[in-house]
Amino acid sequence: MKNLIQSVLILIAVLISGTSGAEEVVYAQVGDTVTLKCQADSYRYLYWKIDDTVIKDLAWINDLGGKHFITGEQCIELLTDMISLAETVSMTPRSPLLPGESLTLSCSVNTLGNKKPQVHWLNPQDKKENSLVNKRVTSQDTGKWTCVVTDGKNKKETRVSVTVVDLSPAPSDPKYTSKSKTLNIPCSFAPHVSWEHVKARDVQEIYWQFSPDPSSGLVSKDTQKLYFLNLNDSLWKNTGQHRELRPVQNLKNGDLSLSRKQGREEDRGNYVCNMKFKSGAILNRAVRVEVLQIISSPQTDLVSGQPLNLSCSLGHPLPSGLHVKWSPPPGSSLPALKSEHHPADVIIPEVGTGDGGKWECSLLQGKNQLTSAVITLKIEHRLSVWMLVIICSAAAIVILIVILVFILCRRRKRKMRHLRHRLCQCKNPKPKGFYRT
């Protein structure tokens, strides 16, 4: 690749001949204005020269009163492009770079006479390096590199910018979530890397992959492709495997993260953010997601007096350095846990109505809460023997009353039917009384 930057720094030697015999070196960058000052109390003949070559009609003065100046008296301002002596800074190849690519930075000075100034580089972390830098870059090389030229008390600096296209480092620890917490899976461009930098390196594809954990409950354990970025409109497209995870639509800020309002058990696993370039280079970052879960046995709806077992876990034994803390309802029958490290399993032989409500399990690393999970228990009153006797007796009395009313109603209907039958046996009944025969 061609050099991107070739910055020039002018090295000017000002030689003042006369009684003072003074000599001064001035460093300046191309485009700067240079002011050369001569201060001599007495002289016979004073003139400006470069590398022992007298520049005629430029500036001179003698003790007989003869003089000639382009501008001013004893001072001359020169534009730096009048002089060809230079210090050269170069960078190969052009920026932006990808991690692992080779970078060469050189800084050399053409000096006057025996002048040999000290030259070195300062990297973006302000650490000193040689005048010739040849290395394979990482994201830490992004920033301003400074070429420093030092000659006694004189010092001049020239800077060049280096950009390394990379992703921000993945979190060293897993991302913890639960059904009670949001889920955010981070991935972004490294600081100072823009979407324009990424496109300048011919990015071919940006996509997310997911490998489920065996404890996630998913049937398929194969790696799944969740989302890919459409480079034409800079919009994310799903592959049907996204499980309602949503990418952050903020590509201008370099944010490639996935998120959801609540975590799920099936979110456990490894997520990989990939960025593939036409050169074949692939940048990726892996994020591990752990889901904290509370399991109630036998269930969440109980009757007072039943046994209860609450288990708080990540689907596997807790790693060293992590512990849980339970927060039961205010009226819970659970004995106070004095230790800061609570057991992952809580066993209550007989639950009471005070055990109903929200139970919270917090996952801690030291005193830092990583996430928490919440479960709600519903506890019904247990019926005593006397209450059962009273209820059964009342029910029996009600049933007996209903049966008695039914029997009485049937008997009354039968009597009425029989009476009507006795009164209506004659075809033409006569009224009661005496009749003449």
TrEMBL record:
<dbReference type="InterPro" id="IPR036179">
    <property type="entry name" value="Ig-like_dom_sf"/>
</dbReference>
<feature type="signal peptide">
    <location>
        <begin position="1"/>
        <end position="21"/>
    </location>
</feature>
<keyword id="KW-0472">Membrane</keyword>
<keyword id="KW-0393">Immunoglobulin domain</keyword>
<dbReference type="InterPro" id="IPR013783">
    <property type="entry name" value="Ig-like_fold"/>
</dbReference>
<protein>
    <submittedName>
        <fullName>CD4-1 molecule</fullName>
    </submittedName>
</protein>
<keyword id="KW-1133">Transmembrane helix</keyword>
<keyword id="KW-0732">Signal</keyword>
<dbReference type="Pfam" id="PF00047">
    <property type="entry name" value="ig"/>
</dbReference>
<dbReference type="InterPro" id="IPR007110">
    <property type="entry name" value="Ig-like_dom"/>
</dbReference>
<dbReference type="InterPro" id="IPR003598">
    <property type="entry name" value="Ig_sub2"/>
</dbReference>
<feature type="domain" description="Ig-like">
    <location>
        <begin position="87"/>
        <end position="163"/>
    </location>
</feature>
<feature type="transmembrane region" description="Helical">
    <location>
        <begin position="385"/>
        <end position="409"/>
    </location>
</feature>
<feature type="domain" description="Ig-like">
    <location>
        <begin position="290"/>
        <end position="376"/>
    </location>
</feature>
<dbReference type="InterPro" id="IPR003599">
    <property type="entry name" value="Ig_sub"/>
</dbReference>
<keyword id="KW-0812">Transmembrane</keyword>
<dbReference type="InterPro" id="IPR013151">
    <property type="entry name" value="Immunoglobulin_dom"/>
</dbReference>
